[in-house]
């Protein structure tokens, strides 16, 4: 017996005026694909987290492997920002300064601190722009492998650097492949898993950041006892341990089925899906229906978005999506994250010893990792991405204000310990909300057709804001510059409050929605505050018959089944 869903589609076909033979075939092609797509969509909505884990264990493993590329970036960012409090590094690359007591110390000037921190960001912007074209042209796997080869070559510059200029060149060059990793890992994670797993795999990328940072600070602490140049060369040399095993693993990884569908390679998409799933564990899955859902979503997006260039990201409905993705990324820096990136240097300037400052930083990075699992718990309890973002920003604002007021305390030793403790709490709150959830939001809000380019543009804005923050923060904290200390908390609290206002009015709730449903909600210009409560039927939308027939012909050529 046909289901109510199937009956509704058949009624539409039966009630239509009798067309010519060619139009009948076109209408039947559309009806067949939509029927299969609808079945797959209903199954995705009903899929529980446990069913997703049973059906997609291989997808989880491949996504985790590719996301591990982000560990390298987290590791290096941790090195460059924490080396500023590293005596051996400062003696090699810094300049001598004399404090009021007559003691001579070495400091990397604030201008070079800003330059080194922003050098990687400049390279990342170049890599991001290139990725928008390269990955869509050659596929995700080969793009990642090529970038890993570049990492092997560019790390040699770090290892042999004799001046701060050499470090600057290395940061810029390594930033290029890091920029590719920043977006490609998110896109791959969102495209190889169902709705039930999407939030977990995309936010796992933030865990990789935390792991990289924690390894970096651990390596520095392990070399504090050294007094020679190997104290900072060993941490740089350890960057070579990542690329080779990753290249070998990623070579055997399946390509994104969504990318293959966009390229019209439906048989390859079907094969990729079969490699991503374990059919013996979950019998309700039908690979042909899932490919049909991807076909229907791609056709719907082709109707909404005619082109696929960077310029198209700023046209029509996609302009709003691009704006939200860009701001979600920017909010990570504007909410005070760039301030926390200098935690070791900040705590050292606040009065803590080197060992204590690095111990607090290690705790912060450990919290960065644990916070991701906390965010997963909140997501599992049904708390939406928008809700986590909104309340997270409110909590961060309060803690930044507390940091600022601690600058008024007369007992600087107690105030510095309190500052370190508050920064740990700040890091936990940040990772439970804004730091982790951002990765899920940017992956879900962008359209499949323009996802890579939209996420690229968002990450570019993140890096531009990062450059501005990276210039300001050293001057705020450096004793030879503005020397704000704790009072910098007031500045970032004001910025964080503005982020809260933006999120309330502009960031929608994508939790539990398929990509096609999100496309339709944006097309209908639904308010961000009404996304969660608005019902949509993507299969009631008209999609051009010739587009659907082209996909239907590709399905026929690939030998896939069409259920009628």
Notes on the protein architecture:
This protein has helices at residues 4-15, 21-46, 49-55, 57-67, 69-82, 87-93, 110-138, 140-160, 164-191, 195-222, 230-237, 243-251, 257-262, 266-276, 287-304, 316-341, 343-350, 354-380, 385-406, 412-432, 434-445, 451-477, 488-506, 515-523, 545-558, and strands at residues 95-98, 104-107. With 564 residues, it is mostly helical. Strands 1-2 form a two-stranded antiparallel sheet. Helix 1 runs antiparallel to helix 2, helix 9 packs antiparallel against helix 10 (195-222) and helix 17 (343-350) crosses helix 18 (354-380). The longest helix is centred in the N-terminal third of the chain and has 29 residues, at 110-138. Residues 1-21 have low confidence and may be disordered.
Describe, in short, the structure shown:
With 564 residues, the chain is mostly helical. The protein is built from 25 helices and two strands.
Keywords:
564 residues, mainly alpha, two-stranded antiparallel sheet, 2 strands, 74% helix, disordered N terminus
Set down the secondary structure blueprint.
Elements: H1 4-15, H2 21-46, H3 49-55, H4 57-67, H5 69-82, H6 87-93, E1 95-98, E2 104-107, H7 110-138, H8 140-160, H9 164-191, H10 195-222, H11 230-237, H12 243-251, H13 257-262, H14 266-276, H15 287-304, H16 316-341, H17 343-350, H18 354-380, H19 385-406, H20 412-432, H21 434-445, H22 451-477, H23 488-506, H24 515-523, H25 545-558
Antiparallel strand pairs: 1-2
Helix pairs in contact: 1-2, 2-15, 2-25, 4-9, 4-10, 5-9, 5-10, 7-8, 7-9, 7-22, 8-9, 8-11, 8-12, 9-10, 9-22, 10-18, 10-21, 15-24, 16-21, 16-22, 16-23, 17-18, 18-20, 19-20, 19-21, 19-23, 20-21
């Amino acid at each position: 017996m046909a289901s109510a869903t199937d009956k509704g589609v058949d009624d539409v076909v039966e009630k239509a005026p009798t067309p010519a033979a060619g139009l009948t075939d076109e209408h039947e092609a559309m009806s067949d694909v939509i029927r299969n797509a609808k079945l797959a969509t209903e199954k995705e909505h009903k899929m529980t987290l446990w069913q997703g884990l049973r059906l997609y264990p291989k997808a989880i493993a491949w996504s985790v492997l590719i996301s591990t590329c982000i560990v390298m970036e987290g590791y290096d960012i941790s090195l460059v920002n924490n080396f500023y409090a590293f005596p051996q590094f400062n003696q090699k690359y810094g300049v001598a300064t004399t404090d009021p007591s007559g003691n001579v110390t070495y400091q990397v000037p604030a201008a070079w601190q800003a330059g080194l921190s922003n050098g990687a960001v400049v390279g990342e912007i170049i890599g991001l722009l290139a990725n928008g074209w390269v990955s869509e042209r050659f596929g995700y796997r080969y793009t990642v492998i090529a970038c890993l080869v570049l990492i092997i070559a560019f790390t040699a510059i770090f290892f042999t650097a004799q001046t701060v200029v050499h470090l600057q060149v290395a940061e810029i060059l390594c930033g290029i492949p890091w920029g590719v990793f920043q977006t490609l890992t998110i896109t791959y994670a969102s495209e190889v898993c169902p709705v039930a797993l999407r939030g977990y795999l995309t936010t796992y990328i933030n865990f990789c950041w935390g792991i990289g940072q924690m390894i970096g600070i651990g390596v520095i602490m392990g070399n504090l006892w050294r007094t020679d140049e190997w104290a900072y060369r060993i941490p740089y040399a350890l960057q070579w341990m990542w690329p080779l095993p990753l290249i070998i693993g990623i070579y055997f990884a399946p390509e994104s089925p969504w990318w293959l569908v966009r390229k019209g390679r439906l048989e390859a998409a079907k094969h990729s899906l079969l490699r991503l799933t374990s059919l013996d564990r979950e019998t309700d899955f039908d690979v042909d229906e899932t490919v049909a859902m991807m076909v229907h979503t791609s056709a719907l997006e082709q109707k909404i978005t005619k082109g696929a260039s960077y310029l198209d990201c700023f046209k029509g409905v996609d302009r709003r999506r691009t704006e939200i993705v860009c701001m979600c990324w920017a909010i990570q820096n504007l909410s005070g994250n760039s301030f926390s990136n200098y935690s070791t240097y900040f705590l050292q300037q606040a009065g803590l010893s080197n060992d204590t400052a690095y111990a607090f930083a290690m705790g912060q990075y450990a919290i960065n990792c644990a916070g991701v699992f906390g965010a997963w718990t909140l997501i599992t309890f049904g708390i939406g991405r928008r809700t986590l973002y909104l309340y997270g920003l409110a909590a961060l604002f309060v803690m930044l204000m507390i940091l600022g007021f601690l600058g008024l305390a007369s007992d600087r030793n107690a105030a510095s310990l309190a500052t370190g403790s508050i920064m740990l709490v700040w890091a936990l709150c940040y990772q439970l909300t804004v730091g982790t959830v951002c990765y899920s939001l940017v992956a879900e809000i962008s359209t499949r057709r323009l996802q890579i380019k939209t996420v690229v543009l968002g990450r570019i804005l993140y890096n531009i804001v990062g450059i501005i923050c990276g210039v300001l923060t050293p001057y705020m904290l450096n004793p030879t510059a503005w020397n704000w200390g704790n009072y910098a908390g007031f500045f970032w609290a004001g910025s964080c409050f503005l982020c809260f206002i933006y999120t309330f009015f502009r960031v929608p709730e994508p939790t539990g929605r398929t990509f096609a449903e999100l496309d339709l909600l944006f097309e209908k210009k639904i308010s961000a505050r009404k996304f969660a409560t608005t019902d949509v039927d993507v299969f009631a939308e008209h999609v051009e018959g010739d587009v659907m027939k082209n996909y239907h012909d590709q399905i026929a050529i690939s030998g896939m089944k069409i259920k009628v």
